[in-house]
Design a protein that fits this description.
The chain is an alpha/beta fold. It has 11 helices and 17 strands. A hairpin with a 2-residue loop joins strand 2 and strand 3. The protein is elongated and about 80 Å long.
Length: 377
């Protein structure tokens, strides 16, 4: 895996109508460095990622881009893909248009002065630029200052400038790893059920919800099934490494085991709050099996979804290759308050909701691990 480490992280706003305003900022993974002296530039403001994409290069060249895209909480976390574009590809777009740096509103739904980090990537041939995220309260302040009227003078200086210091480093390619464990099934001819989580986390917090909780949930469920007696199918537990920085663990598993037969794949990587919906992407022969699973989890407040399961990042290559999948969707209403911030700590895990996850996962895993070949080939 490529290893990137953060360094100094500081930013200030300055302008003709206010004194210097310090910002709570963090670098995005794969950000370039400003150098220890930092850089200063006029801000080019964009209300959304789409506005940045549509802007002419002349509006951006030589400036520090700011992308303002206030994410709203949803139970299913569906806003992450839409708002996350500002982080996923915003720096690449800004770099290609000649920006000297980019700062985005954090991809998060909280109002704390905790910026949210996360990975960004630059296309081959695009020179990386410094890229950071500021906390939502600081983004609100920047927007307020941006919208204040300019002084009525033709020679007025730019409304807002930013001084930015980010000094991350790339340390080259280092070794990571996956941890894999099997609960052996009693039928060696039956294809295994694979359940996954990821071991790594972003460095600002401890990774309690992203994704230690997921690893705890799937491992506890496998332990409960094993304690009840040897299942028919092997349960394979994948604790994937290096997910946050590019799904390197999931890809490595697929490279090593992708040609093996897997009965079904599931992943827990959305925090520790309760499971509220189950989605399926199973063969037609498994209709009775999915009905049985839906009935088993209904007493725990889990409804049946109408969309096909999509799997998770670490099992994504397996699902794309045709492995059946089940999603046990967790309540994500507060997930992006904490995601990739210093607040990702153990006290954010609600024990009652965590137990509900384990109960639901155990019920589903017990059915899958003892399913017949006519239900799951």
């Amino acid at each position: 895996m490529p290893v990137w480490v953060r360094g100094a992280e500081e930013a200030w706003l300055s302008g003709p109508l206010f004194r210097s305003q310090k910002l709570a900022i963090t670098a995005l993974g794969n950000s370039a460095s400003t150098g220890t002296q930092g850089i200063e530039g006029e801000i080019a403001y964009f209300e959304s990622f789409d506005a940045l994409v549509a802007a002419p290069d002349a509006q951006i060249k030589g400036k520090i881009v700011f992308v303002d895209h206030k994410m709203q909480p949803t139970q299913d976390g569906s806003g992450y893909g839409y708002y996350g574009r500002g982080r996923f590809t915003g720096p690449n777009v800004a770099a290609k248009k000649g920006a000297i740096a980019i700062v985005i509103r954090s991809i998060g739904t909280d109002n704390h002065r905790n910026p949210h980090t996360g990975v960004t990537n630059f296309e081959a041939g695009v020179k990386p630029i410094p890229a950071g995220a500021i906390s939502n309260p600081d983004a609100d302040q920047l927007v307020r200052l941006w919208r204040r009227p300019m002084p009525a003078r033709s020679d007025a200086p730019p409304l807002i400038k930013m001084k930015l210091i980010l000094t991350p480093q790339n340390l080259g390619t280092k070794q990571s790893g996956n941890v894999i464990a099997d609960v052996p099934g009693r039928d060696p001819t039956a294809s295994p059920v694979i359940i996954a989580c990821h071991l790594d986390s972003w460095d600002l917090g401890t990774g309690a919800i992203d994704d230690a909780a997921g690893c705890g949930i799937i491992t506890a469920a496998a332990t409960h099934v094993m304690s009840a007696g040897q299942p028919r199918r092997t349960i394979r537990i994948l604790w994937a490494g290096a997910e946050e920085v590019g799904v390197f663990g999931g890809k490595a598993y697929f490279d090593a085991h992708g040609k093996e037969k897997h009965a079904v794949a599931l992943e827990s990587d959305f925090g520790a709050d309760r499971v509220w919906r189950v989605d399926f992407k199973l063969p037609d022969s498994a209709k009775a099996l999915s009905d049985r699973i839906a009935a088993a989890v209904m007493p725990f407040g889990v409804v049946r979804g109408k969309q096909p399961a999509s799997g998770g990042a670490d099992i994504g290559a397996l699902v794309q290759a045709g492995v059946p999948a089940i999603d046990l969707a967790q309540d994500g209403t507060r997930y992006f308050d904490i995601h990739h911030t210093p607040d990702d700590t153990l006290d954010k895990v609600d024990p009652a909701q965590l137990r509900q996850n384990v109960v639901v996962w155990t019920a589903v895993l017990a059915i899958l691990a003892n399913s017949s070949d006519t239900e799951l080939p």
